[in-house]
Specification:
Length: about 270
């Protein structure tokens, strides 16, 4: 029995149409130019939990964490080499202690799981970015261990933004720049006279990664909330109504198709 015959017998008509649509969309996307770096604002976990009548926000965060594995599989399949996931903002650190404790635990478990998945397709290198000194020491050490354990992986680079805020990153970059110049004997006047954008860029958390080509935000919110403020100057944006736990492969493919249909001018 052919694969098509099997599908027809096992799926409802709507599901069959959906599968064929997704397959055609995948072929269209794979034939085009794909972004090299995709950033994702994983938004809507708490609203997903409330809308689905789940017990608490923790259930929503756990569902969102599970969807990260699926998303990375889609990126590996398409050979997208760089992904940045915004898991926790500096503003999130002001949440209720009980929810924050759950969220930090889930983030730690998720990052470790990503780094220890087996198989050649899962050789994911993890790097963490953010104001990590604002995190509890146990969480910070857990993230750093995952980073160290995957330093030799070369299939895909996954940058995890935890305790991250765009304004905080730029502030820290300027602080680092000034300290570095002062250590080399430069005065504030010297720095001001010669300061160029690339000087600040070389002190950002994300130094060493290309700027994102595409940034996706889920949950229907039409704002960046400070995500990669400096690096996203020439990025394309895609906003999706689905809450992150319900973000599907077809949603990702649509975002990529949207990206491919645009003409990137890089400010020119």
């Amino acid at each position: 029995m052919s694969v098509i015959s099997t599908l027809k017998r096992s799926l409802k008509p709507q599901e069959l149409v959906y599968r064929f649509y997704e397959r055609g969309l995948a072929r269209e996307v794979e034939a085009g130019e794909l972004p090299q770096h995709v950033g994702v604002i994983l938004d809507g976990n708490r609203r997903y939990a409330a809308a689905r009548g789940l017990a608490d926000a923790r259930s929503g965060h756990e569902a969102g964490a599970a969807n990260i594995d699926r998303f990375l599989d889609w990126c590996v399949d398409l050979e997208i080499p760089y992904v940045t996931l915004w898991l926790l903002s500096t503003d999130n650190l002001a949440r209720d202690d009980a929810e924050l404790d759950d969220l930090l635990r889930i983030i730690g478990e998720t990052v470790e799981r990503i780094g220890t998945r087996r198989g050649a397709r899962d050789r994911v290198r993890i790097t963490t970015v953010g104001a990590l000194d604002l995190l509890p020491e146990a969480v910070r050490l857990r993230l750093k261990r995952a980073e160290a354990a995957t330093a030799h992986h070369d299939r895909m680079r996954v940058q995890v933004a935890v305790g991250y805020g765009g304004r905080q990153e730029i502030t820290d970059a300027l602080r680092s720049l000034l300290r570095d110049r002062a250590a080399h004997g430069h005065t504030l006047e010297d720095v001001a006279a010669s300061l160029a954008p690339e000087d600040i860029g070389s002190h950002l958390y994300t130094t060493g990664l290309p700027d994102p080509d595409l940034i996706i935000r889920t949950s229907g919110e039409l704002r960046l909330s400070g995500f990669l403020m400096w690096q996203s100057a020439h990025a394309e944006y895609h906003f999706c109504d689905a809450y992150w736990p319900e973000f599907r492969r077809i949603d990702f493919l649509r975002a990529l198709r949207d990206y491919q249909r645009r003409t990137r001018r890089f400010g020119r």
